[in-house]
């Protein structure tokens, strides 16, 4: 009986010691907050490894009774509601405070600060320093922070004309080196009528004046634009001239373009067997008469050479079943105005003659006739030779 009391008292002391140990570990932060494991029990997870768990039942092996200290921190659940376990926290990597850094080269324009503890690039800065003369072509840059060095070509600004009008002086904007060189005349100063060469490096303009010379042209269609080497432009109308011909045609050329076309021949009667032909381009010659020019009216037609239609042979019309002459194409139809056609409307004029139509249908009822000149003007159609 006495032993039972002693054993019972020891169990109570062990329970209280377990409760005190659990509370102490929670207070020191060794164990995380409670995580439900069963509807009636919870566990505390080790924050160091997230693997070890400590439950009241694992501590109190001596009794199935959960002390009051543990009951007070249980998550209350409705009867029959299963506990919802939560994921353990993911441990975070330690953050380096970068207690000290060292300088290192990064690129041709920057250096960087590198952490001496973790090796991470902490920051980047542009190089700062100065240039010194190396030779007539180069200078050298040295960064005063990281001692980075690079060799570059001189950078020159606008030049200053030197006395004598032959040279100019230019200063490097980085190392202040000065060089003297000859003018570079690749631009111009100009007026509407002339131009002067100009140095692009220093702006010096030479005294010699030269008249504009146009050696480049652009065809705009009805006009063309001429360009001088100095940049002045002039736009004007075309001036086509005959530059070449043969039996098939001739070529007309302007300063901007050229084109080829057929001859426009003027025929002049010479004798009963020949006429003289000529084009404005200079092409000309003698040719036998060709009897294919036809004039006609109501009474008949005349076939002859177009150099002199009046010398052709006259003949009566030969009509087919449609009342159309099979030789000249004249159509024998009555006039809707007067019964007989009256050819008074000028339809077409040409050097060889004219075409007169009837007012009823000038393009359908017409005749060809020769000019009747009074001076240089035809008294019938108004053609001027």
Task: Summarize it.
The protein is built from 3 helices and 32 strands. With 385 residues, it is mainly beta. About 4% of the residues have low confidence.
Features:
385 residues, mainly beta, 3-stranded antiparallel β-sheet, 3 helices, 9% helix, 41% strand
In whole angstroms, the N-to-C terminal distance is 162 Å
* Arithmetic mean of pLDDT: 81
* Helical run tally: 3
- Structural category: mainly beta
Radius of gyration: 58 Å
**Shape, please?**
elongated
Helix content: under 10%
Strand order of the largest sheet: 1-2-3
Strand content: 35-45%
Can you count the beta strands?
32
pLDDT under 50 segments (min length 5)?
A: 61-75
Largest sheet: 3 strands, antiparallel
How do the strands and helices of this protein lay out in sequence?
Blueprint: H1 2-28, E1 31-38, E2 41-46, E3 53-54, H2 56-59, H3 68-71, E4 101-105, E5 110-115, E6 121-126, E7 129-133, E8 138-143, E9 149-153, E10 160-161, E11 167-171, E12 178-182, E13 185-190, E14 194-199, E15 210-211, E16 214-219, E17 223-228, E18 233-237, E19 241-246, E20 249-253, E21 258-261, E22 266-269, E23 274-278, E24 284-288, E25 291-296, E26 301-305, E27 313-315, E28 343-350, E29 353-358, E30 366-369, E31 373-374, E32 377-378
Antiparallel strand pairs: 1-2, 2-3, 4-5, 5-6, 7-8, 8-9, 10-11, 11-12, 13-14, 14-15, 16-17, 17-18, 19-20, 20-21, 22-23, 23-24, 25-26, 26-27, 28-29, 29-30, 31-32
């Amino acid at each position: 009986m006495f032993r039972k009391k002693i054993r019972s008292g020891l169990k109570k002391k062990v329970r209280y010691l377990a409760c005190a140990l659990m509370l102490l570990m929670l207070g020191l932060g060794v164990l995380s907050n409670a995580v439900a494991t069963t509807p009636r029990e919870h566990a505390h997870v080790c924050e160091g490894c997230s693997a070890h768990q400590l439950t009241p039942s694992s501590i109190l092996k001596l009794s199935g009774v959960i002390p009051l200290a543990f009951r007070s921190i249980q998550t209350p659940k409705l009867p029959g509601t299963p506990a919802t376990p939560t994921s353990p926290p993911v441990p975070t990597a330690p953050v380096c405070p970068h207690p000290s850094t060292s300088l290192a080269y990064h690129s041709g324009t920057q250096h960087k600060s590198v952490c001496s503890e973790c090796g991470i690039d902490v920051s980047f800065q542009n190089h700062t320093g100065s240039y010194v003369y190396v030779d007539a072509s180069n200078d050298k840059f040295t960064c005063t922070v990281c001692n980075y060095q690079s060799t570059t070509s001189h950078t020159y600004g606008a030049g200053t004309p030197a006395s004598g009008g032959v040279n100019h002086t230019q200063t490097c904007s980085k190392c202040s080196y000065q060089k003297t060189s000859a003018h570079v005349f690749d631009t111009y100063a100009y007026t509407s009528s002339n131009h002067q060469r100009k140095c692009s490096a220093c702006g010096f303009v030479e005294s010699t004046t030269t008249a504009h010379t146009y050696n480049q042209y652009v065809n705009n269609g009805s006009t063309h634009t001429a360009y001088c080497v100095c940049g002045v432009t002039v736009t004007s109308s075309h001036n086509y001239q005959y530059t070449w011909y043969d039996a098939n045609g001739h070529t007309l050329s302007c300063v901007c373009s050229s084109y080829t076309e057929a001859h426009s021949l003027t025929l002049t009667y010479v004798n009963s067997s020949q006429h003289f032909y000529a084009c404005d381009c200079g092409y000309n010659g003698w040719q036998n008469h060709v009897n294919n020019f036809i004039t006609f009216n109501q009474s008949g037609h005349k076939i002859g050479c177009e150099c002199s239609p009046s010398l052709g042979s006259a003949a009566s019309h030969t009509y087919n079943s449609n009342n159309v002459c099979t030789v000249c194409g004249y159509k024998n139809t009555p006039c809707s105005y007067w019964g007989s056609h009256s050819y008074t409307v000028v339809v077409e004029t040409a050097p060889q003659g004219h075409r007169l139509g009837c007012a009823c249908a000038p393009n359908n009822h017409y005749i060809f006739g020769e000019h009747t000149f009074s001076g240089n003007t035809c008294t019938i159609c108004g053609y001027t030779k």
